[in-house]
Each structure stands twice: as C-alpha cells, then as structure tokens.
C-alpha cells in the first residue's frame, strides 16, 4: 500500500452560533486543514487539524506550511511502520502539533484500511459505544436552562456546563438545570476562570450536584490545582494543564488531580493521546477524551481512542455539532447521547471537498 500522493486542503468553517468561553473572544468560525493520502491502488486516507489561536494556539498559515512539509515526506513512508513514519513526520512538522495531528490521523486511517479493521478495534477494541456530554455554553440562567431542555429532548442525558466568568451565576445555572432535570449528569468547566478559593467554594457548594469540576483554575498553577483537589469531595480534572505526556507524568506522580482530559486535536494525534492515557492509567488517574470545536473526522478519531481504553471514564465529544458545512461525514452514529462507532475500516469517514 504505497503512498503516491499527499494533498493539503485548508477549509474555513462557520459555526451555527458564536461560542463564548472564559478568557477568550467569542468564536464565530474555525480554520481547518484536511489531509488526504492516496495510495497506488487509488485508496484515500484522511486526517485533519484545527488551526485557531484560542483553540489550539496555532495560526492557520503556520499549520498549512507544516502540513505541506509533511506532505512532501509522506510518499517516502509506509503505513504499517507507524512508529517510524510518525517519528519522521514529527521531525518536519516542527512545533506544530496540529500538523502532526492531521498526519497522525491520516496514517492511522491508512493503517486501518491496510488491515481492514475499524480504528477503534485496531487501537484496543475495549468497547463499541460511549456516552458523551453535550455542551451548554456560557449564557444566562434562563438561556442555559432552555439549552439543557432542548438537548434533553434530543436524547442527551449528560451536560458539560461552560463557566468561569461569574462563579455565582455558574452555581445558579447548575442548580437550575439540576432542579429541572434531576436525573441528568452535570459537569462544570470554568476553563481556568476561577482563583483557588473560588474553586474550592464552588466545589463545596455543588457537591452532589455535579459529576466533576474541570480545570477550575489557570493552567500554569499546579500547586493551586493540587490544593483544590485535596479540598474537594468531587473529582477535579485537568484540561489546559495537560500539555503532553511529561505534564501528565508530573500530575500523576504528585497526584495533582483526579483525572485528565485529552484532546486528540491539541496533543498531536492518537499516538500521543495513547501515551498520555497509559501514563494516567499507571498513575491511577482517570481519562476523559474531550474535543474542541472540530470537524466530525476529528471527533471520530477521538471516539476511536475513547473506545480503545478501559481507563477512559468520561467522554465529551460533541464539538462537531457546532460546525456548518462540515465536509467530513460518517464515522459513527449518535443514539440518545451515545456515540456508536461503525465497522468501516480505518476511521470510516468520507470527506467531500
């Protein structure tokens, strides 16, 4: 299965509505880069990346240039030699984890085509479906409740409530949703918007009402994050504090948090994500597979990863739902808030550009 050609295609995608998050301007559109590997037999394997300063920390032009460098090398590599191929690609991707993600996905997709196995089985095959949360963006109490009810009617039973701007309002929003939908699972994600004492207070006030508190304080202060974890009766998860395998090793060794969130889109692809989960598992930290605002192809990769490991306790894989005119289709189906993988080889996605 020799690669004959690698194509890099930038695509600008609009969102259904502006997305508000703590500490960043509202996001209205997202730059993406799709990668296609063509084989001598005419098969196509796909990967993609998101290039957005507030989501991945990378500029689109830098990601495109790094992808083009990887594309020049790709025909010299063979899909079954994954370790070797990804190591060589990393040497030309430079500092761009987004470019590395795009080619990591494409090579894993190609490996799945080569073996005729769906990627979730190739990575481990622990399960075939997982329940995901649906995101309630920063908004007023009334708007948050309306959104929660809309999502509940669509079949979701698990919500991640974004916050971090006004802690008191966040508490009111959680309480309002919990009172109206008492059988639904709630998570709160302040995106690093609280200080230490506020995070402790919110955790205490919402004990028994939320399943977890994700990245309550800024990413760089691990000592404070550990302090919050030790004072909280609910699990504390790190998100933006997770910058790669080394950071997770440090968090596991010092038990900074109870669990970690991994995003395939920001860590450089599936290869790195699996390393992170292995370290978390050894350190007895639970893993959540999460997402950014991303095309369905990326969510499919995250789902394949989530389905592969028994250490993945949580899934937050709804970022594709905000996209308009997403060129990637397939990969999985959504059933009452559960993501169910298909049995197509590789990622099982088609891309129409």
Any descriptors?
353 residues; 2 domains; alpha/beta; Enolase-like, domain 1
How far do the termini sit from each other? Answer: 24 Å
Provide the number of structural domains.
Answer: 2
Helix/sheet category: alpha/beta
Q: What would CATH call the homologous superfamily of the largest domain?
A: Enolase-like C-terminal domain
> How much β-strand is present in the residues?
25-35%
The CATH class of the largest domain is Alpha Beta
What characteristic shape results from the CA principal axes?
A: globular
Provide the helix percentage. 25-40%
* Biggest beta sheet summary: 8 strands, parallel
Q: State the CATH topology of the largest domain.
A: TIM Barrel
Strand arrangement in the largest pleated sheet: 5-6-7-8-9-10-11-12
H/E order of the elements? EEEHHHHEEHEHEHEHEHEHHEHEEEEE
Spatial extent as radius of gyration: 20 Å
Low-confidence parts lasting 5 or more residues at pLDDT below 50? Answer: none
- How many β strands by DSSP? 16
CATH architecture of the largest domain: Alpha-Beta Barrel
How would you summarize this macromolecular structure in one to three sentences?
This protein is an alpha/beta fold and 353 residues long.
